[in-house]
Amino acid sequence: MNKTILITAGFLGLTAVVLGALGAHALAEKLPPAALKSFSTGVEYQMYHALFLLFLGSTDRLLIKHKKAIFWLIFTGVICFSFSIYGLSTQPLSGLELGSIALLTPLGGLLMISGWGLLIYRVFRSLT
C-alpha cells in the first residue's frame, strides 16, 4: 500500500506542476482572471495533497488499513475537487457545458477534510 500511495503522490505532484505551467503560460491569455484563479486553486490543492500523500506513504505511525482509508478519501477528494475545477474553469475554451460537475467540487472538499480528520483521529488514537 505504501508503494501505491507514494506512486500516486508522485503522479499528483507531477501533474500539478504540468497543469500549473499550463495555467501560467498557455491559459493566462485565454481565460478570464477569475477562471484562471480557480484553475490555480485546483492546482494548489492538488499539490498540497500530493505532499500529504508523500507523508502518508512514508510514515510508520499508522496501520496499513488506516492509511488505505485516508488514501482513498484524499485521492478521491482531489479528483473530485481539483479536476472539477479544471473542467469548470476551462469551459470557455472547451465550449462544453460542464455545470453539472459543479457539485463534485464541494464533495471533493468534504472528502479531503474527512481524510485530514481521519489522520488526526488515528494519530491521536495511536498516542493513547
Lay out the secondary structure.
Layout: H1 2-26, H2 33-58, H3 64-89, H4 91-94, H5 104-127
Helix pairs in contact: 1-2, 2-3, 3-5
Oligomer state of the chains in this structure: single chain
Structural class: mainly alpha
The number of helical segments is 5
Q: Which H/E pattern describes the elements?
A: HHHHH
Residue stretches low in confidence (pLDDT < 50, at least 5 long) are none
- Distance between the first and last residues' Cα: 25 Å
Number of strands: 0
What's the Cα radius of gyration? 16 Å
Q: Mean pLDDT, nearest integer?
A: 94
Description:
- With 128 residues, the chain is mainly α.
- It is 82% helix and 0% strand.
- It is built from 5 helices and no strands.
- Helix 1 (2-26) runs antiparallel to helix 2, helix 2 (33-58) runs antiparallel to helix 3 (64-89) and helix 3 (64-89) packs antiparallel against helix 5.
- The longest helix has 26 residues, at 33-58.
- It starts with a helix and ends with a helix.
- The mean pLDDT is 94.
Structural descriptors:
128 residues
Short structural description:
The protein has 128 residues and is mainly alpha-helical. It has helices spanning 2-26, 33-58, 64-89, 91-94, 104-127.
